[in-house]
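Pair request: fold both.
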Amino acid sequence: MGTRTVFRPALAKMIEKVIKNPPKHSSYSFVVILVDTENYDNQEVMDLIVEASEHPISFCFVGMGKEVFKDLLYLNDSDTF
């Protein structure tokens, strides 16, 4: 397996931007996160997603490359939350 990435800082910034500055002509935000490695901070990311679930926002994690992306599959599974 390759290196792992920390998603929390970027994800937190996206959530903050959407919540504090919602689009003027839209009532829903859909965030697509493209990654090429597994994440290192799965629990922190799950906590952020749960916190953001009170707002009109969805997340889709897309793994690119030859990684297995077990953590991303877990994050994308609606039964996880």
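--- second member of the pair ---
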Amino acid sequence: MLRDGKYSMDGVSTLAISGVFMAALGIVLAGVLAATGATIAGYFLANRVFDLKYSPDPWVWVAGIVGGAVLVGVAGILAARSVVTQPPMTILRQTNA
């Protein structure tokens, strides 16, 4: 539906939808990056340091994505907490000063 020049879905603007999508994409990418790093580190430690045969574990990927989601979520909450708890006018005065 088109309202005021913007498409919306039951009152939710496409800007809000794209923001949620981008946050979810960032969380998944952080998890994939964490799982990739853990897999590569495990491979090199097993083969090069301990002379063991490496067998990849799919739970590393599950833990990486979940752990990445938790870390990104906690970091986002901590970073935005000071902005959310203050009145908007206080934030605007600080940025214009």
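Observation on the second member. Strands lie at 2-3, 6-9, 12-13.
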